[in-house]
Amino acid sequence: MRLPAQLYRQFDADPARAVPGEGYGGWHTVAAELAPQHTALVVMHAWDSGQPHEFPGWRRAVEYTPRAEQILRDVFPLLLAAVRRSPLPVFHVVGGDKDYWSHLPGYQRAAKLAGPSAVVSTVPRDPVYERLQQLRAAQGSPGQHNAPDIAAGFTRLDFAPAARPAGEEGIAKNGAQLAALCRAHGVNHLVYAGFALNWCLLMSPGGMVDMARHGCLCSTIREATTAVENRETAREQLEKQQALWRVAVEFGFVFALEDFLSALRDIGQGQRP
Description:
This protein is α/β, with parallel strands linked by helices. 38% of the residues lie in helices and 18% in strands.
């Protein structure tokens, strides 16, 4: 399975320039090889966020929700249908306080493969720590007036209809379970889709930082994800560009949707993988 992929030439800084980093080569396209028997699509935190009127505070705090919903409508049906027709398995990474997954066979298998989850012991707290956390809650994100809606939204969390697991597709809630699925399927390259690229897909349990520790290559599909933006970056989605750069430099490759779908079609037509 061969397809174009993007990497970033984070070299060579030029000391002769006023800004040495402007000497870097930047983005470039390479011909990448994917082994279908060792590659999986990971759908991560592709949630049903409800209707806009249900949890307005959640949407005020999470500005990328409309973009995620558009991706779920326009990209996920094509992507998941194509992968499910191919030899690549689909794995799902879940999260949140509400358990919407443990009754599904794909999760039960992953939990059995991984065994008991490790218990993380936290460091001791003190009064200053508590006051700092209270200050963050009062003055920082997500805004105290939004917190009730966010909490209410998370109580009814579920898979988005376009991202619901099919059959016995593997479901993991942490890196140990996802790694267990990888070992069971012989997978060493994970291609991520879902939300959000610079947040959960990178940092949450089962995300790229976690899975790189297990030895996995971690890539993404540009059109199948979006990022958490801020006031200064939202108009041009600069945080997404920064996150794509981080994927290309630290973890794997960045694929274009059409190139990925075309490579999957070639497999189906019997062309050389």
